[in-house]
Amino acid sequence: MKTNAVLAALAALFLAAAAPSPSDQTVAYTATPVVEDGVLKGLDVNLSFRGDADGETTLSLPDRWAGEVEYWRHLENLRVEGAEATTPNPASRVLTHAPGARITVRYRVTTAFDEDPKVGNENPYRPIIRPRWFSVLGNAVFASPEGDESRLADFRWADVPAGWTVASDLDHASKGRRTTLGDIVESVMVGAPDLTVVTRRAAGAEFRIAIIGRDWTFKPEELGELMGRVIDAERGYWKSPGESYFVALAPMIAPSKDWVSVGGTGRDDGFSLYAGTNSPIASMSYLLAHEHMHTFNPRMLGRMPKGDDEALGYWFSEGFTDFLTHRVLLRSGVWSLEDFVEHLNEELKAYAESPARLATNEEIRTGFWKSYDLSKLPYRRGMLIAHVWDHRLRTLSGGRRDLDDVFQTQLKAAGRQDAAGEWVLATDNFFAAWKQAGGADLSGDVARHVTRGEAVLLPADLFGTCARVETVTRPPFARGWDPEATTAADNIVTGLKDDSPAYKAGLRNGMKIIKRAFGEVGNSQVEYGLRVEVDGKEQLFRFMPVGEGPDMTLQTVVLAPGMDAATRAACARRMSGG
User: Fold this and answer.
1) Is the pLDDT of residue 321 over 70?
2) Do residues 50 and 198 both lie within one domain?
3) Please, are residues 210 and 195 in contact by the beta-carbon 8 Å criterion?
4) Is the pLDDT of residue 180 over 90?
5) Which value, in Å, is the radius of gyration of the alpha carbons in the chain?
6) CA distances from 58 to 44, 94, 95, 147, 323 (A)
7) How many whole angstroms separate alpha carbon 399 and alpha carbon 418?
8) Are 372 and 277 within one domain?
9) What pLDDT digit, counting tens, does each position of 263-297 carry?
10) What's the 3-state SS for 371-431?
11) What is the DSSP string of 181-194?
12) CB 237 within 8 A of CB 328
């Protein structure tokens, strides 16, 4: 018996040594900005972890995300310690090692940009590593052992160069916040000698804004104040306590002082913002609010379709987020009535004029990352659908209920599902909550407007007596050339159709557009004029920009005139669902 007890004890010790404890399963990351002779050369990334118990671990390199591919091309000199590595494909390594061995992986992240990125229709998601600053997303730079994204992780900065300031939402790990591999991938890191970090509190929690550069039209503290108002308003809408939040703002180059462009992408506990330094602070409010609203939709309202099917749910995750963003900005006073109507009318105009406005949801799924028009469609389509359904529920309930009630019910249901480990689509949760609120079946609407892509029209009395929705019909607008390709070609006319009015007026591929002399983009009823360089001389081409196809329907919201202060306040409540 004594011998057996000793053997059992030895066996227990052996198993304990061979099987790492749960805390020993943490994947530890460090990042180091590498500066040589005052110039940033790259980011050195190290990760250390225990290999799998069977002696073989697959290391996944950054590869596909947000329509981009082969992010691994920006990783150099990858070395592995503690295991033998083979390369089945460029996006992964198979590591062979002793069971549970400690493995360290080292590599350098290099830039995807040889010059400062320019503003445009697409955000710069690949690593931006410039001589004096960097802005990188976790999706683009972090390798990880293949497996469960909920595996614990840790992050620390290592050897930050003298005079440099760095910041990331991953800094929350050093403050004791539970961090996972999923958080590592869904992160943003920025750094520069002239990085300003503003720390504030909103909704009872700390948030930080990290701003690269000093040439902005606003002070960092002003952006911090605006972000605080947005967080307070949106956390108040959802009746949710605050959490740590992080915003990184990187400077883009605008082609002219009048060109304002603001873009970004959400992170799990923050987002990465890109803007021309000439952008006024007022242009930031929508994006700040939209991205922070993603804290809730869809993350806390249910799941999204998996893999390549995710875009099928963008009408809800993006479109309903826009609806909520507009609603909360007006309700909180960040936007005035005029701001709200102006932004809504901009979206109505863009929706009516979009050549993709009648695309099916399947076309969005396959083309979202390939076409600017398709990428914007689910935002606008979903936002308009939300307005229609909100109006319908108000009408059915005699004004007692609206989408606010549906979202609150959905939020509670999704919370119970998360606690139980259930996987339910956010849209299915919405339909269930809608039914509980007394709403009629929505399957017909979904089939028409989402699946088949039929046009969404707002009811004339959407906002009661506060505003009217006017509807006009006119022929479709068409320039005749490919505007995106032409812009990318430095305004050299590209993709001109030989049956277009512009071609018939004398314009040809290869000519250089100097500027638009007159006309209105999107309006086929106004004559269009272009000043173009031809054989070294400037010429004026004029034509009516009428395209082929069915007439387009344009809707415009018009505020009721002559409202006094009390009526304006009442209408702000009515139009924001208050």
Assistant:
1) yes
2) yes
3) yes
4) yes
5) 27
6) 21, 5, 6, 9, 42
7) 32
8) no
9) 888 888 899 999 999 899 998 999 999 999 999 99
10) CHHHHHHHHHHHHHHHHHHHHHHHHHCCCCCCHHHHHHHHHHHHHHHHHHCCCCEHHHHHH
11) HHHHHT-EEEEETT
12) yes
Q: How far apart (Å, rounded) are the C-alpha atoms in residues 504 and 401?
A: 55
The answer to whether residue 10 is domain-embedded is: no
Q: Name the domain count of the chain.
A: 3
DSSP 310-324: GGGGHHHHTHHHHHH
Q: Give yes or no for residue 11 having a pLDDT over 90.
A: no
Type of residue numbered 501: P
Instruction: Give me the half-sphere count of Cα atoms (radius 13 Å) on the Cβ side of residue 90.
Output: 10
Q: Residue 182 is part of which domain span? A: 24-293
> Euclidean distance between the first and final Cα of the chain, in Å?
76
Note the Cα 501 to chain centre separation in Å.
37
- 201 plus 332 within the same structural domain: no
Rounded mean pLDDT, 315-332: 97
- Among residues 386, 377, 448, 441, the alpha carbon closest in space to that of 577 is found at 386
pLDDT band at 121 (very low <50, low <70, confident <90, very high): low
Name the β-bridge partners of 212: 195
pLDDT category at 60 given cuts 50, 70, 90 is very high
Predicted pLDDT of residue 532: 94
Q: Quote the percentage of the chain above a pLDDT of 90.
A: 81
Q: What is the DSSP string of 208-266?
A: EEEEE-S--SS-HHHHHHHHHHHHHHHHHHHT-----EEEEEEEEB-SSTT---EEEEE
Sorted by sequence, the CB contacts under 8 Å of residue 166 that are 6+ apart come out as 33, 157, 160, 189, 190, 191, 195
On whether residue 302 sits in a domain, the answer given is no
Q: Express each pLDDT in 336-395 by its tens digit.
A: 999 999 999 999 999 998 989 999 999 999 999 989 899 999 999 999 999 999 999 999
Residue 150 sits in a domain whose CATH number is 2.60.40.3650
CB atoms within 10 A of CB 128: 23
> Do 420 and 487 lie in a common domain?
no
- In one letter, which amino acid is 33? P
Same domain (yes/no): 149, 78: yes
Q: What CATH number has the domain bearing residue 428?
A: 1.10.390.10
Length of the chain: 578
Same domain flag for 354 and 286 = no
The per-residue pLDDT for range 39-53, each reduced to its tens digit, is: 999 999 999 999 999
> Is residue 79 situated within a structural domain?
yes
pLDDT (average), residues 500-527: 92
Amino acid identity, position 286: Y
Asked if 523 and 410 sit in the same domain, the reply is no
Residues 336 and 287 in one domain: no
- Using alpha carbons, list the distances in angstroms from residue 303 to 340, 424, 504, 532: 29, 6, 51, 50
Q: Answer for the pair 372, 379: CB distance below 8 angstroms, yes or no.
A: no
> Among candidates 143, 152, 142, which has minimal Cα distance to 25?
152
> Which residues is 541 bridged to in the sheet?
530
Give the DSSP letter string of 100-139.
T-EEEEEEEE--S-SSPPBPSSS---S-EEETTEEEEEHH
Peptide bond just before 459 cis, omega within 30 deg: no
- Is 558 among the domain residues? no
Residue 329: pLDDT above 90? yes
